[in-house]
Amino acid sequence: MRRSDTWQGVWTALVFAFILTPIASLVFFSFNADRFPSLPWGGFSLEWYRAIFADDTVRDGFWRSIQVSAFVSVVATFIGFATAYTDYRYNFRGKLPYLAIAALPPTVPVLILGLGMLSFFSMVNLVGTLRAVMFGHVVICAPFAMALIRMRLADMSPDIEPAAWNLGASRWATMWRVTIPWCLPSIIASLAITAAVSFDEFMIAWFVSGLEETLPVRILALLQGQVSPRINAIGSLVFFISITLAAIGQLFASRKESSA
Does residue 169 lie within any of the structural domains? Predict the structure, then answer.
């Protein structure tokens, strides 16, 4: 092995250690019997996990986050598929601006998005409702779904659908029996990734949720004015859910590449 490869491996390991050490410490101290995260370790305990599941506000926030992420993953994936398919199949005047607008939300600072959505949802009387959080998350998640599905469509020959049409299949039959099965790995990946993004999102939910707090917003409320070991347990739970969804998304995205 060349020396440059060795140093590259060492550097990569250091970067991952820098990123993952705080997360590992969070999970480690979530099982600590002591109230404060300090060494030596006070012993293994599930007390803080029992405490968060006994907290009605945390349970409610967790349930709201599950509801929001489930809704957002389905709607954002549908919009992402429609946008990606339009880009794949049709050429029309204004296509570039259309795609630019569709891909714009993740490039806008989330603080600006949150303020804009607060202003808009105030005008339509949705501020303080879970629907406002759902709609706001759809806006930021749909571009991720569009990107994943468009990459899959790029691997599909443009002659496959016309061949099905020439054989007598309608456009809807071709969509259901050819296009969607081809895109299924990326659709599942999109469902998982958009659910993970929505479940973790804080800023937009903080601006528009009001009393309908999602779990990340509830975590902020717990952090204000106190240092609670329950934060480690909640953070570990959120991390486990998010990394599981991201791993599912990556698994199906990789399957997409190998099956192409």
Answer: yes
3-state secondary structure of 44: strand
| Structural domain span for residue 214 | 55-259
- Asked whether residue 18 is domain-assigned, the answer is no
pLDDT in tens, the chain (260 residues): 566 667 787 888 888 888 888 778 777 777 776 666 666 766 777 777 888 888 788 888 889 999 999 999 999 999 999 999 998 888 888 888 888 888 888 888 888 888 899 989 988 888 888 899 999 999 999 999 999 999 888 888 888 888 888 888 888 888 888 888 988 999 999 999 999 999 988 889 989 888 888 888 888 777 776 667 778 788 888 888 888 888 888 788 776 444 44
Nearest alpha carbon to residue 208 among 106, 107, 140? 140
CB contact at 8 A, 189 and 197: no
3-class SS at 32?
A: strand
* CATH number, position 165: 1.10.3720.10
| Residue 192 in domain | yes
Q: Which two tokens stand for residue 228?
A: 């609670």
Q: 62 burial class (0-12, 13-18, 19+ CB within 10 angstroms)?
A: buried
> Rounded distance, CA 131 to CA 45, Å?
38
Does any domain span residue 87? yes
Non-local CB neighbours of 4 within 8 Å, separated by 6+ positions: none
